[in-house]
């Protein structure tokens, strides 16, 4: 099977490539990039004139919910949501039931993904047993089973000594520790950003400091141990100042931001829509602008959705008791394209670097490049394709999006995974 993507703007930051060209896929590999490539009768030709052709987007932070919470999402539905959203690979968080703290759960996820998934799935192992933050998980076993990183995401690691040992031990395997930075005592029962709006709405706030003190702590521990630290879903300007200082001193730390923290602020909570309830919370406009700038300049390395699907039942309750999370995979790319790329605040090159090259490099997984001979994971985006977000068309079981009804441009047009056409014009083909 061959596929020819004809006449797109091919942007591959890994090779400093930005030109109008054809891309030929043969089997599971990139066969050639060039002008007017020849085709034979077996080649499926897709006209991508006016579109962006990029190395496959990798979402390094998703919650697939399986095993245990299959009513929220499954590996089958979550990977289809990823393909529909323009992603060729996802890394999935271990806060399942049971928690992915054993080789058996990691193996289960990988096997299920191989059998019925439509994009690559890289499991992240739990850092501590049951993600309780007390006793380290069997890290060697998790890595041998295929975990690409360790995290207790969903929960912070409150015990600094446990975090220290995780950062120390993971050095042996050269994998990152992904930290959900939240001091639970400071966050204490909060449900949104602590500020003027939380006061007006009468909702309990989570101060930015709850994140920032943990960012500072984890960076200090990364320096102490030499371990690789990756900071998940950063939300505040203060976190970025600490990150800046750490990077300027050469500490091994990387960071990600989400589309929702780049596109919304705490003002979105004003209608008490529980789909705006997310952890960390949507923060102030000043924070949002700082995140945008940090992504643009490369202080923040990567974009990630933190796709956190929940059922309508889960979310159809009072703001105070609703679970945290946004179903993000199927709006992520058009949100960032519409708000940041089309407005000239983020280049295509930087977008692709942050959502393809960097995640591959941070997790040390295949992808992030269109090099000839490499695996054919490709994302095509149609910058001019405009349509409204409709959660009813999501492949994800999680319809919990605060972006319902929003008109966006720059939808993903084609997703190719290991040479297989898995999505065309928004329709998943497998
Ligand atoms: N981000 C969220 O609001 N929710 C995540 C947990 C997490 O990423 O911390 C979830 O698992 O639902
Ligand atoms: Zn988290
Ligand atoms: Zn998460």
UniProtKB/TrEMBL annotation:
Q: Where is the Dihydroorotase catalytic domain?
A: 52-236
Keyword Coiled coil present in the record's keywords: the answer is no
In the UniProt record, does the keyword rRNA-binding occur? no
List cofactor names only.
Zn(2+)
Q: In which pathway does it act?
A: Pyrimidine metabolism; UMP biosynthesis via de novo pathway; (S)-dihydroorotate from bicarbonate: step 3/3
Give any single GO term for biological process: 'de novo' UMP biosynthetic process
The residues the record assigns to binding Zn(2+) 2 are: 153, 180, 233
The protein's matches in CDD domains, at most eight in alphabetical order, are given as: DHOase_IIa
- Going by the entry's taxonomy, the superkingdom of the source organism is recorded as Bacteria
Sites where the protein binds Zn(2+) 1: 61, 63, 153, 306
> Which Pfam families does UniProt cross-reference here?
DHOase
EC number from the UniProt entry: 3.5.2.3
Q: How is the cofactor bound?
A: Binds 2 Zn(2+) ions per subunit.
Q: Which GO terms describe its molecular function?
A: allantoinase activity; dihydroorotase activity; zinc ion binding
**What residues does substrate bind to?**
63-65, 95, 279, 310, 324-325
UniProt keywords, alphabetically? Hydrolase, Metal-binding, Pyrimidine biosynthesis, Zinc
Residues annotated as catalytic: 306
| The family this protein is said to belong to | Belongs to the metallo-dependent hydrolases superfamily. DHOase family. Class I DHOase subfamily.
NCBIfam families under this entry?
A: pyrC_multi
Q: What does this protein do?
A: Catalyzes the reversible cyclization of carbamoyl aspartate to dihydroorotate.
Q: Which HAMAP family match?
A: PyrC_classI_B
- Protein name in UniProt: Dihydroorotase
Q: Which organism is it from?
A: Thermanaeromonas toyohensis ToBE
Starting at the broadest rank, the lineage of the source organism is: Bacteria, Bacillati, Bacillota, Clostridia, Neomoorellales
The record's gene field reads pyrC
């Amino acid at each position: 099977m061959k596929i020819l993507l004809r006449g797109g703007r091919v942007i591959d930051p890994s090779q400093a490539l930005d030109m109008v060209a054809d891309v030929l896929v043969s089997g599971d590999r990139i066969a050639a990039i060039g002008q007017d490539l020849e085709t034979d009768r077996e080649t499926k030709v897709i006209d991508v004139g006016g579109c962006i052709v990029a190395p496959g987007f990798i979402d390094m932070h998703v919650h697939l919910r399986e095993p245990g919470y299959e009513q929220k999402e499954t590996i089958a539905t979550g990977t289809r949501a990823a393909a529909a959203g323009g992603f060729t690979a996802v890394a999935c968080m271990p806060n399942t039931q049971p928690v992915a703290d054993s080789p058996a759960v990691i193996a289960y996820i990988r096997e299920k993904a191989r059998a019925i998934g439509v994009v690559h799935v890289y499991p992240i192992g739990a850092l501590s047993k049951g993600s309780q933050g007390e006793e380290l998980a069997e890290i060697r076993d998790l890595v041998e089973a295929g975990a690409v990183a360790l995290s207790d995401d969903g929960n912070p690691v409150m015990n600094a000594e446990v975090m220290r040992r995780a950062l120390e031990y993971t050095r042996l395997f050269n994998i990152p520790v992904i930290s959900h930075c939240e001091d639970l005592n400071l966050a204490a029962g909060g449900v949104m950003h602590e500020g003027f709006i939380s006061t007006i709405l009468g909702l309990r706030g989570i101060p930015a400091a709850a994140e920032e003190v943990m960012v500072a702590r984890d960076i200090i521990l990364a320096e102490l141990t030499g371990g690789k630290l990756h900071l998940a879903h950063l939300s505040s300007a203060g976190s970025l100042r600490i990150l800046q200082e750490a990077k300027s001193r050469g500490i091994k730390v990387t960071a990600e931001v989400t589309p929702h923290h780049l596109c919304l602020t705490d003002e979105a909570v004003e209608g008490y829509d529980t789909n705006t309830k997310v952890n960390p919370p949507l923060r102030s406009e000043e924070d949002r602008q700082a995140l945008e700038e940090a992504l643009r300049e490369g202080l923040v390395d990567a974009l990630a959705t933190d796709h956190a699907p929940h059922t309508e039942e889960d979310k159809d309750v009072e703001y105070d008791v609703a679970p945290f999370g946004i179903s993000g995979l199927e709006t992520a790319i058009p949100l960032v394209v519409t708000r940041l790329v089309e407005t000239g605040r983020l280049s295509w090159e930087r977008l692709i670097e942050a959502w393809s090259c960097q995640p591959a490099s941070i997790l040390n997984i295949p992808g992030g490049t269109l090099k000839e001979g490499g695996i054919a994971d490709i994302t095509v985006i149609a910058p001019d394709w405009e349509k409204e977000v409709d959660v009813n068309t999501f492949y994800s079981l999680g319809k919990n999006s605060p972006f319902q009804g929003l008109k966006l441009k720059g939808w993903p047009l084609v997703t190719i995974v290991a040479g297989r056409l898995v999505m065309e014009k928004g329709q998943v083909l497998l």
